[in-house]
From TrEMBL, chain A:
Gene Ontology biological-process entries: mitochondrion organization; protein transport
Similarity comment: family membership: Belongs to the metaxin family.
GO cellular component, one term: SAM complex
Keywords tagged on the record: Acetylation, Membrane, Mitochondrion, Mitochondrion outer membrane, Protein transport, Transport
Protein's cellular compartments: Mitochondrion outer membrane
Gene3D superfamilies: 1.20.1050.10, Glutaredoxin
Keyword Nuclease part of the UniProt annotation: no
Domain Metaxin glutathione S-transferase: start-end pairs: 203-265
Gene giving rise to this polypeptide: MTX2
Subunit structure: Interacts with MTX1/metaxin-1. Associates with the mitochondrial contact site and cristae organizing system (MICOS) complex, composed of at least MICOS10/MIC10, CHCHD3/MIC19, CHCHD6/MIC25, APOOL/MIC27, IMMT/MIC60, APOO/MIC23/MIC26 and QIL1/MIC13. This complex was also known under the names MINOS or MitOS complex. The MICOS complex associates with mitochondrial outer membrane proteins SAMM50, MTX1 and MTX2 (together described as components of the mitochondrial outer membrane sorting assembly machinery (SAM) complex) and DNAJC11, mitochondrial inner membrane protein TMEM11 and with HSPA9.
Name of the featured protein: Metaxin-2
InterPro entries given in the database record: Glutathione-S-Trfase_C_sf, Glutathione_S-Trfase, Metaxin_GST, Mito_Protein_Transport_Metaxin, Sam37/metaxin_N, Thioredoxin-like_sf
TrEMBL record, chain B:
Organism placement in taxonomy: Eukaryota, Metazoa, Chordata, Craniata, Vertebrata
Compartments in which it is found: Mitochondrion outer membrane
Tree of life domain: Eukaryota
Sequence ranges assigned to domain POTRA in this UniProt record: 45-125
Name this protein carries in UniProt: POTRA domain-containing protein
Key word Membrane present: yes
Keyword Membrane: yes
Pfam families: Omp85
Any one GO biological process: mitochondrial respiratory chain complex assembly
GO cellular component term, pick one: mitochondrial outer membrane
Amino acid sequence: MPNCLFLCATLVHYAGPSYSNYTFHLFHSAAEPWPENAALYQPLKDDQILLSDHASSLAVQAYLRMCNLPVQVVCRANAEYMSPSGKVPFIHVGNQVVSELGPIVQFIKAKGHSLSDGLDEVQKAEMKAYMELVNNMLLTAELYIQWCDENTAKEITRPRFSSPYTWPLNHVLAYQKQWEVRRKMKAIGWAGKTLDQVYEDVSQCCQALSQRLGTQPYFFNKQPTELDALVFGHLFTILTTQLTSDELGEKVKNYSNLLSFCRRIEQNYFEDHDKDSITSSTSRLSKGSFLM
Amino acid sequence: MGTVHARSLDPLPMSGPDFGVHGDDAELVEVEPEAKQEVLENKDVVVQRVHIDGLGRTKDDLLGYEIAEVFTATNLIDVMKKSHEAREKLLRLGIFRQVEVVIDTSDGEDALSNGVDVTFEVAELRRLTGSYNTMVGNNEGSMVLGLKLPNVLGRAEKLTFQFSYGTKETSYGLSFFKPQPGHFDRNISINMYKVSGQFPWSSLRETDRGVSTEINFPIWKTNHTLKWEGVWRELGCLARTASFAVREESGHSLKSSISHAMVIDTRNSAILPRRGALLKMNQELAGYTGGDASFLKEDFEIQLNKRLFWDSVLSTSLWGGLLVPIGDQPSCIADRFYLGGPTSVRGFSMYSIGPQSEGDYLGGEAYWAGGMHLYTPLPFRPGRGGFGDLFRTHFFLNAGNLCNLNYGEGPRAHLQKLAECIRWSYGAGIVLRLGNIARLELNYCIPMGVQSGDRICDGVQFGAGIRFL
């Protein structure tokens, strides 16, 4: 990049009709229909993506399929840095870039698609509470196991996270990310927990979800909502990912209704499209070749 | 200027060095002034000893080369000339605050009748010097602190540290410089730096952390630089509204490159030269010593100056560059060339020519730019001989083009692409010279050949910098 050391004040005129990005409001985007070329960005599927990122990405993909909105999954090594909030996945729809499930649900709602419109206020509050539970328990547990358990971090997480980069940048970025996550864990009080305590927390979270689900097909009876997408994303990823030990998956397998819930969503929403369905990847996953 | 004291060359009285010789001198001057003048010019002398007084931490062997020439002087005028040149060389080392030359007749047991001793009285620079500046730039102010340790190990090595703390970005750099004893033009320097920059024309923010090593050496009339550089580049969007093309470039990359530069500079000054020419050629190869970025980059700069009638100067310059990505990776926005602005093709906004996406300029892989200037003194020459000499009026014609090339098409297609849709501009303005480093310009520009997507700055444009087209 050229060095510009000195000041250059210029009086600026535009040569033609000026195109300004600043006037893009949500109302403007709501008027546009869902485009054909909407894309969802995530890290590289085979070598780079981590358990927590894959869970988040799968949740968004499930939600979009439930809303019947087509989206193309694009894998980029720098997806995390492309995202406006620093978290994956993010979607690029028209001119808008939105990241994370919560804002994406809001964005899609502004376009006129929603899965939770049929719920009353009490149910909506309950849904939000369970989504918070999943984010605070399951997601945090996933991050803990990935980055704070030294065994997993050394064998799986750091090599995967830094795989697109060359030496010595790969080590620098992996350790930088690890320090960042560990600092965050300390801030929320998880730094003192042992691995067994974390597994216990996961188990309790699964128990709460299992109890709420009961014998229903989805959390709010007949129709899936964003909560179903989120729970599916996390549980399916945990079941199909091989870590250094199988204990995390075992905690989920204790609850048979959660297993059938995952299978149901997979069959209903992911088996229609053969090419980019996750069933082809599940057969790979269950063979243990998908290392997280 | 150094002071040179010369005493009479007549032999000293037999009783030894005696301050009474002053009286004899004075008489000699009064009685035979013309004879003394003759003595100075025609008398052959032999330089017997050259001393350097006042050395502290400087090692002796370093200075032997600089003062060696003085021994070859044959008469007094020659001694004075060679001493002056040696003084310049000693000052160039950058380790002395001042150098004074004392030329005296030899004394001692082995003193010849026409022997001369030359003494350089030097004062070394302090071990640590500091500087503090404030800088104001585009919507940003910063405080710059500099520390310099000259002559760290005794052989003219220099260690410099610079720290810049700004409202937006922070940068720092550490640099170690070592010349070869006896050949100051051959030197090696090692730098470590962290530099951040914001580029609003591309909505891009870049942070570079890097290490570089460079070796400079002259070959005949040219100056060559060989450099290895390893940089960790972090790119990010400057605003939420950055275009997606720039967003795609965000992230980290590592560039490890070797470059070679050649400079031939016969101009009399770097800023507003009156005569001479400049040729600079630079090649950079990245990717073969590690890192992610892989490309070959060439660029050149030519400038010719000729003095015309009535104290005016005609100056023409030509710049060009080519970036060839190696492998299947596309080029990175941080490596591409940019064009336009008050220091390049005037009449256009800063780096606002060429490929762009939603108002963010992405740069190009090939460019050329040319300029023709006529510099004249200010009309009616106000302030002549003083302040007015720093100003010049100038009339200019600039042209250039920037584009991306599809390297499968062949050179003919490339030349054709660079030759169509040329942007050019003309105008006039005033130039102010700042020391020997920078210049300020205030121009009235009329841009032409504007393509859709370019941003222009027609009318008055102000520019400040060190390198202008």
